[in-house]
Give the backbone structure.
Amino acid sequence: MCESAHYPVTVLCQVMGVSRSAFYDWKQRPGKLIPAQELKMRRRMKKLFELSRESLGNREMMKKLRGEGYEIGRYRVRKLMKQMKLIVRQRVAYKVTTKRKHGDAVADNLLNQNFNPAGPNEVWAGDVTYCRTAEGWMYLAVVMDLYSRRIVGWHMDKRMTTDLVCKALSKAYDIRRPPAGLVFHSDRGSQYTSKRFRKLLRSYNMRASMGDVGACWDNAVVERFFGSLKHDWLYKVPQPTREHMKADVAAYMRYYNLERLHTANGDMSPVDYENTLRKVSGFS
């Protein structure tokens, strides 16, 4: 074969950064067939990764696959994810705080960092964070049941007011109708120490609990939720409008409650964890 016949291959190899001998070696090598079951699993891995908005690491991926009946170890999952270029974009640390008004009352810390109550509707935790859109800021208040880590109520607004946290709590109460004596834990932000919010707690027969000054770990579970919401979800797509942000937060709430696995729940989602309790004890 004349040299001119090799010219296109030579140019292509130079562009791709490989030698011509390596190209011919690859060409003569028989293609590797992927079994149908593994092909199905790879497609499922890609789908799970997309659903998580590229936040599902190899440990969580393994748990998801095992939960769907695939017999696979973490090393194999890690290798496949590398081959398929399913690369998690790392989250970064952040912190948000609110300050109380000096005239507002502060409740005792009834939790003392005990984030694992014995049953549902015993301890709820609330907090507020901010989310940026091209139109301006949005503020999100959530209520989490610490038993299952489920978000049982939330509300968003363009202003961070007492009304924001009151609406989040009211939504949670209307959905769950918890028994009297539930502990509601929060930081000492002005929204939670306000007379209006304390009055709402009393009307629901709930007991207030507040973390210590400067101790962000006193509400660590909700802080981690906000970290996942922002860095695993919201920051990965443009947020052009406040309405778009609301819809995207709602989508994450569904994903978080229904799909996201938690070590504290025995590697189950919040909803699955509560459903397991219902089957065992008849909780409703």
